[in-house]
């Protein structure tokens, strides 16, 4: 196998990790600089005020704006930390490509950041928002399609991140992804 072919997977992992890092950094930046837009989204989802208003579900609604805002701030903090982790992982991938060593460290940190995104968008937005707070019932405040796109992209990147790469560590070390 040529050196070029053996570096394809780490290059793909680096670029894709960087893509998700850029995306989530922009999401966090947008939520910080335009706080009110998605604040309203979170408030409506948690209040369940645009759902079918089924009495069997409405007991789940969180009507306290203080709790709604605390949840939104927690989301922004999680997004920001995930962005920083993925930016650091992207830098580690780039350094590993230059040094031809350190791939495992980049892979581990990338996996942490990607799993953070999968937890937020999968468990948080699809599971809790979509099902527990019945976001799927709302015509105006339904973020499931966007969450599914992010989970799909991030899941693919996580898989690429874990694909084996023959000869990724050209120095002969066992530090391959």
Automatic annotation (TrEMBL):
Keywords in alphabetical order: Membrane, Transmembrane, Transmembrane helix
Membrane-crossing residue ranges in chain numbering: 12-32, 70-97, 109-134, 146-164
Keyword Secreted (UniProt): no
Pfam families to which the protein is assigned, alphabetical: DUF2165 (PF09933)
Signal peptide: none
Domain of life: Bacteria
Keyword Zinc-finger appears in the UniProt entry: no
Name listed for the protein in its UniProt record: DUF2165 domain-containing protein
Organism, as annotated: Streptomyces alboniger
């Amino acid at each position: 196998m040529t050196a070029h072919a053996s570096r394809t997977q780490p290059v793909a992992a680096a670029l894709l990790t960087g893509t998700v890092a850029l995306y989530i950094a922009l999401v966090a930046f947008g939520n910080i600089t335009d706080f009110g837009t998605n604040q309203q989204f979170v408030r409506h989802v948690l209040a369940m005020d645009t759902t079918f208003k089924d009495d069997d579900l409405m007991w789940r609604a969180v009507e306290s704006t203080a709790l709604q805002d605390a949840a939104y701030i927690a989301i922004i903090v999680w997004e920001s930390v995930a962005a920083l982790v993925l930016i650091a992982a992207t830098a580690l991938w780039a350094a590993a490509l230059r040094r031809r060593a350190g791939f495992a460290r980049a892979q581990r940190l990338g996996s942490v950041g990607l799993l953070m995104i999968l937890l937020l968008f999968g468990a948080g937005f699809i599971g809790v928002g979509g099902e527990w707070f019945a976001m799927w019932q709302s015509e105006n405040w339904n973020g499931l399609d966007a969450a599914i796109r992010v989970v799909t992209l991030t899941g693919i990147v996580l898989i690429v991140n874990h694909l084996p790469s023959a000869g990724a560590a050209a120095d002969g070390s066992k530090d391959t992804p």
